[in-house]
Design goal:
heterodimer; A: alpha+beta; 7 helices; about 30% strand; B: alpha/beta; Rossmann fold; 12-stranded mixed beta sheet; 6-stranded antiparallel barrel
Chain lengths: ~200, ~525
């Protein structure tokens, strides 16, 4: 998924709004995992987002791919026989903006301006993930923003992803889940659903 | 060291404040009776945990409980969706404002504000509240889970009547012994102890049957042992100072009236006693016992309109008294006088009952001696008020099985009821030891200055001990949960606030040394004098 210049570069912004942005991957099928922390830059502000969905579609809208593998032995064979296929599709992922960095300071709320089109999108390295997840204030955004996927799923995915940056995953997850328990004090079923999905 | 427990969330002065525990603090580590400080915005409050409860943020959690076998879920929910709460009764304010800085802890008149931080009380806080061991204060025990010494102001304690209550086997005797030693060392009061089971004079025994030293062994120069049963004392190798014999003529109708229930006397029989006393004079008992089936006797009874059956009932009762071996027609010397002699010299008197542990003997003797001693004290106090003499030393009279003397039916008649009620007017107070405080007249209970309660589990007993105390229901839960040994709840006059203590150790060589090392200045003076005399 890396490309020339930066090893963690995963794509480029192609649509942006205050609350989210969409990035196209440089390679087909190379979108970062659901829930991973990515960042892009708007002038001096670095925007952090969590991957909340990914799609792979035909380059031309309305033109659907056709089944090609009837006479092939394996799926890989299809792509080998028609290498142009890789250029006919594209993979995109959308990220929900959860915070930003201005200078040395991290803010776990929405930035003043949305991301810029063609801004490069990077996957955050573990050290940066740890830095960002020192505070769980971003959970509030994850829970309360209406999303095409279930918020519970996203929260669970984000926490699972972030926990991988920690040596002691258990401690991190417990701390995060305790924060959730307070946020969701009136929504027991939602809390239970998330806990079931992040149990180490 | 401050150990943060949580924050104040609600409450009232009357019922105490509610404290939400912080999530790392487990309710299982808490204990009722433990001390906490609350850091209010302007004042620091000192209080006691009186209740511990569990709470949930979402009531549905109690209906569909989470899977607690899952450690992760349990860990997450503990302290967040489920939490512990404490009820803390604030008793005092310490520091903070000028008055409490200058005059020490003050009683609370308000509650700490919302979200004040609650910490476990430190050793220093406890010391600040209960004071350090000094000339007046005597170390009686430690608070639960702490090493700090809780001290009782004994000079203050002996100014009022006090009570030690608790079920049998909860350590009343040990506690009383420690208290007596304290009074002996740190107060000007002298003690007269009616020692029903011969435990306070020379030696007692622990629950395990081990012998422990008592007052006379530890403080030979300031304790005198009187005995009713010379033989028993001799067998136990106790050196006694005086053998008590009571003459028939010492017994008054009031003594018989007090024994009405124990002797199974009827009302008219008690009435008859008064009549006989009036008619026959001081030696009425002897004369009555001598009245046999003679015409003369019948004449007398007719004259006093005492019915024959009433007289027989009375006679049976009086014969029971007459059979008591320490009662003699003519007493060789006067026990009241010699007890007073000792007490005047500042020597504490323990009266052992030896084998005569039945309640008739105890009630009779205790009442009889106390009445006379009290009368003497009253005379002297009245003279002292008229500036014709010195005030007598404060006297503390220790009685066991107090409900026999102080139950509502007889407390108005016995001298003990009078002493308990009139308090320290005549410099005589009581130390009441009892296992059924509910049997004691509530009027008497209300006059007790300081109450020391070991474990009690009868509802009525608990109620009667705590009657009239503020925050009663809170203390009730503390009292009912004391351990059955070595723990006691102390509250009242001699302490700034109620306290649960683990009684100090008694019975080991070290404990004897510690107890006797703190002897008052008199012994020190005596020792210096002895040295002087020795070296001339």
């Amino acid at each position: 998924m890396s490309t020339s210049g930066h090893p963690d570069r995963v794509g480029e912004v192609i649509a942006a709004s205050t609350t989210d942005f969409v990035a196209q991957c440089y390679e087909l099928y190379q979108s970062p995992p659901l829930g991973s922390l990515v960042k892009t830059r708007d002038e001096s502000v670095e925007l952090y987002g969590v991957v909340c969905g990914a799609t792979t579609t035909s380059l031309e809208p309305g033109r659907r791919p056709i089944a090609r593998g009837k006479d092939e032995a394996s799926e890989e064979e299809i792509y080998r026989q028609s290498p142009q296929l890789l250029k006919l599709f594209r993979s995109e992922f959308s990220a929900l903006v959860v915070g930003h960095r201005q200078g040395d300071k991290l803010y776990h709320y929405l930035p003043p301006k949305p991301a810029r089109i063609h801004g490069f999108v990077y996957l955050c390295p573990p050290a940066e993930v740890r830095d960002f997840s020192q505070s769980f204030d971003f959970l509030n955004i994850l829970i309360n923003t209406p999303l095409p996927i279930s918020n519970d799923e996203l929260v669970a995915a984000v926490l699972r992803q972030m926990s991988q940056a920690y040596e002691d995953r258990h401690d991190f997850l417990v701390a995060a889940a305790r924060e959730l328990a307070i946020l969701l004090s009136g929504q027991l079923s939602q809390l239970k659903a998330i806990l079931g999905r992040i149990r180490p | 060291m401050t150990e943060r427990l949580g924050i104040v969330t609600s409450g009232s002065l009357e019922k105490g404040v509610e404290v939400k525990l912080d999530s790392p603090v487990s309710v299982e580590d808490m204990a009722v009776g433990r001390y906490v400080t609350v850091e209010g915005q302007k004042r620091r409050f000192f209080g006691m945990i009186t209740d511990i409860s569990l709470g949930v943020t979402d009531p549905r959690l109690t209906i569909t409980p989470p899977d607690v076998s899952d450690d992760f879920v349990a860990e997450v929910l503990a302290g967040t969706a489920t939490y512990g709460t404490l009820r803390v009764m604030p008793y005092l304010t310490i520091g903070g404002d000028a008055v409490s800085m200058l005059e020490g802890p003050q009683p609370v008149k308000t509650v700490p504000s919302h979200f004040s931080v609650v910490n476990l009380a430190s050793q220093r806080d406890v010391e600040l509240v209960f004071g350090k061991e000094d000339e007046r204060r005597f170390y009686i025990g430690t608070p639960l889970d702490m090493e700090t010494k809780i001290c009782l102001d004994l000079e203050e304690l002996v100014k009022r009547s006090n009570g030690v209550f608790g079920k049998s086997g909860t350590g009343k005797t040990f506690l009383t012994r420690i208290l007596l030693i304290g009074m002996l060392q740190k107060s000007t009061a002298v003690n007269l102890i009616f020692d029903m089971h011969s435990e306070y004079g020379w030696a007692g025994s622990s629950e395990g049957g081990r012998a422990v030293k008592s007052l006379k062994q530890l403080f030979p120069s300031s304790v005198a042992v009187f005995t009713l049963d010379e033989e028993s004392s001799r067998r136990r190798n106790v050196s006694t100072d005086f053998v008590v014999r009571i003459g028939y003529d010492e017994i008054e109708p009031e003594d018989v009236a007090l024994l009405r229930q124990t002797l199974n006397l009827t009302e008219p029989a008690v009435e008859a006693v008064y009549q006989l006393r009036r008619r026959l004079g001081k030696s009425w008992l002897q004369s009555t016992l001598d009245l046999r089936e003679s015409e003369e006797a019948k004449e007398l009874l007719r004259e006093l309109s005492i019915h024959e059956s009433t007289f027989q009932n009375l006679l049976r009762g009086l014969q029971t008294i007459g059979r008591l071996p320490f009662l003699v027609p003519q007493a060789p010397d006067n026990p009241v006088k010699s007890a007073l002699d000792y007490l005047d010299r500042g020597i504490n008197v323990v009266l052992e009952f030896g084998r005569y542990t039945d309640i008739t003997a105890y009630v009779l003797v205790a009442n009889l001696l106390t009445r006379r001693i009290h009368a003497q004290y009253r005379d002297r106090m009245e003279r002292a008020m008229g500036e014709a003499g010195a005030r007598p030393r404060p006297l503390v009279i220790t009685i066991e099985e107090a409900h026999k003397f102080l139950n509502p039916e007889v407390s108005s008649q016995t001298i003990f009821g009078t002493i308990a009620r009139e308090m320290r007017k005549y410099n005589v107070t009581l130390l009441v030891i009892d296992q059924r405080p509910s049997g004691i007249d509530s009027e008497v209970m209300s006059q007790m200055g300081t109450k020391i309660a070991c474990l009690l589990d009868n509802e009525r007993d608990i109620d009667s001990v705590l009657a009239g105390v503020s925050g009663k229901s809170e203390l009730k839960s503390v009292l009912a949960r004391l351990e059955s040994r070595q723990q006691a709840l102390i509250f009242g006059h001699a302490l700034p606030m109620p306290v649960v203590i683990k009684t100090r150790e008694y019975g080991s060589a070290r404990s004897y040394k510690e107890l006797t090392s703190g002897e008052g200045p008199e012994t020190k003076e005596q020792a210096e004098k002895d040295i002087e005399e020795l070296w001339g």
